[in-house]
Write a structure and sequence with these properties.
Elements: H1 2-24, H2 27-45, H3 56-64, H4 80-109, H5 116-135, H6 145-171, H7 177-183
């Protein structure tokens, strides 16, 4: 009982120190909020094309001057989606979201038609992709090669199914003319 009581007190102690930071937007949480607000304002100033790839870092300073609380002159947005929106505008953001959608579509196409070992690996990479997308809420990793590799793996897995289907079709005996006509 005593061990559990100390653990509970420890957890409540941590929560008691975190809640005021969140409410008052202090520490790194407050800085992230200001970085996100700066990215949003940056996008509002440049909605179509953004400020240019890689330019958030150099352009955030003047936006941060408008914020209360923790500020920095140069930093990443600590949010993949807001940073892409600020840097590439709605056009680049739309392209990024389209690539994410295509990646999910490619992974979904491999639900059937591949062996169990390949399917297990596909599921693992899909989970990695989802974790990376969720992580993108608090970090900027859109330029990370690993992210793009996982998107490429989705193409590989989709191609595995297409190749298997093409081989099966090529090896299957031709249909009699009467069956072909009935299929139409």
């Amino acid at each position: 009982g005593d061990v559990y009581k100390r653990q509970a007190e420890s957890i409540f102690g941590i929560i008691q120190t975190i809640l005021p930071i969140i409410i008052n937007r202090e520490d790194t949480f407050g800085l992230r909020i200001n970085l996100w607000r700066s990215a949003w304002l940056m996008w509002l100033d440049h909605p179509i094309r953004g400020v240019g790839i890689g330019n958030y870092f150099n352009k955030v300073g003047p936006y941060m001057l408008q914020m209360e609380g923790p500020r920095v002159w140069s930093a990443v947005a600590h949010n993949t989606y807001l940073q892409i929106l600020a840097e590439t505008g709605i056009v680049g953001f739309g392209l990024f979201i389209t690539m994410v959608g295509i990646t999910f579509k490619n992974f979904a196409r491999t639900l059937a038609g591949i062996n169990l070992q390949t399917l297990s690996l596909r599921k693992t990479w899909l989970i990695v992709f989802i974790v990376m997308l969720v992580g993108g809420i608090t970090k900027s990793d859109h330029a990370d090669k690993f992210s793009w590799m996982v998107m490429g793996l989705s193409v590989y897995y989709a191609a595995q199914v297409e190749t298997k289907n093409a081989v099966e079709e090529a090896l299957s005996p031709p249909k009699p003319k009467a069956v072909e006509a009935a299929d139409r």
